[in-house]
Design goal:
358 residues; mainly beta; Neuraminidase; 28 strands; globular
Length: 358
């Protein structure tokens, strides 16, 4: 598990700990700096690529505008004990946004996808961002890197996506699949996937035709998990002010999806995550609002058939725009959840549950 915390002066540090039979290890530090871009929705990561090779990323401010920042990506070949000098996976050199990164194992290499603002008009330090009539807006891009940091391939996946919703990647037997929030010219911002197959990324496929028309980014990305060619995507949407958390299944590595299933509505506020429990069962986590400043972290198990178990509340707490994005991962026969808790000092809490898996 990785997190950010304040360091000396105005600096911030990216740290991580590993969960073992006796609990969490002592924290280790990846990097620290006083020029980082700090945002509650666009957060760093530390990801094992294989047993020895790890990758980490964080965001570094770039002169030129309020929302100008670059991705710093560091690699380790000794399980995170030492890190190479960071590199930048994008090579456009523009003073625009580059973030919402997903790192993943790509065969023997490191894959990265991110939101890239190179086609947008740079902001001028506090002025509202604008787009040209011919502007493609925020794009979704990728890079594939060797363990030595060489960029083996890079390019564009989608030329117009939602500006600040998280991305997520899952690995199928047919290759990686990226899930993200798309954006049409008439501001429909529904969830899409793209698959890497036959040495290219496929045209975007809309997972569910929610037709959520919204003039601004909801800052609420999807989550995806896969095993074999079975894929499950979870997301939040609120078309016509109907707030819902949904899930949809694919049995052909994301080429097609069945009709979605609604897991929660009304108080749901999204910030979802999803993990597979078996070939046809998944568990989804999300945040719900229960009062003016209160909320819950909820989970629910759902089958590919649409059958669901009762909803469970993992934690009650405060709710606000800055209350963070809970994370969830399956670790063998355990489910591990982590979420931030505001306070002085602020903390990251975890909860572990034994799984009934097949």
């Amino acid at each position: 598990m990785s997190w950010m915390e304040p360091a000396a002066g105005d600096a911030h540090a990216l740290r991580y700990a590993s969960l073992g039979p006796e609990g969490w290890s002592a924290p280790r530090q990846v990097a620290a700096g006083n020029d980082w871009f700090i945002n509650q929705a666009d957060f760093p990561s530390v990801v094992p690529i294989d047993a020895e090779h790890w990758a980490a990323h964080w965001l570094v401010r770039r002169p030129g505008g309020t929302y100008s920042y670059d991705i710093a990506l560091a690699l380790s070949d000794d399980r995170g004990r030492r890190w190479r000098e960071p590199l930048t996976p994008h090579r456009d050199g523009t003073a625009t946004e580059h973030g919402f990164v997903s790192l993943f194992p790509w065969l023997r290499d490191t894959g990265a996808v991110w939101l890239d603002g190179r086609n947008m008009v740079p902001d001028k330090g506090g002025a509202p961002r604008t787009e040209l009539a011919t502007d493609g807006g925020m794009s979704l891009r990728y890079a594939r890197l060797s363990h030595d940091g060489e960029i083996l391939a890079d390019g564009e996946i989608d030329d117009r996506v939602c500006e600040c919703c998280q991305t997520d990647v899952a690995l199928t037997d047919s290759g990686p699949v990226v899930a993200y929030r798309d954006r049409s010219p008439d501001e429909i911002r529904d969830i899409a996937v793209s698959r890497y197959t036959n040495d290219r990324w496929t045209e975007p496929l809309i997972v569910s035709d929610d037709r959520w028309q919204i003039a601004g980014c909801p800052v609420n990305g999807p989550a995806i998990a896969a095993k074999g060619d079975r894929v499950v995507v979870a997301w939040y949407g609120a078309p016509n002010r109907q707030r819902r958390v949904k899930v949809a299944w694919s049995k052909d590595a994301g080429a097609t999806f069945a009709a979605p299933v609604v897991l929660d509505e009304g108080g749901a506020r999204g910030r979802v995550d999803v993990e597979l429990l078996g070939a046809d069962r998944a568990i989804v986590s999300w945040v719900a609002r229960t009062g003016k400043e209160t909320g819950q972290l909820r989970v629910r198990e759902v089958a590919a058939s649409g059958d669901m178990r009762p909803m469970q509340v993992i934690a009650d707490g405060s709710y606000s725009r800055s209350s963070g994005f809970p994370q969830m991962i399956r670790a063998g026969t355990q489910l591990v959840l982590a979420w931030p808790e505001a306070g002085d000092p602020a903390r990251v809490l975890t909860s572990l549950a034994r799984l009934d898996t097949d």
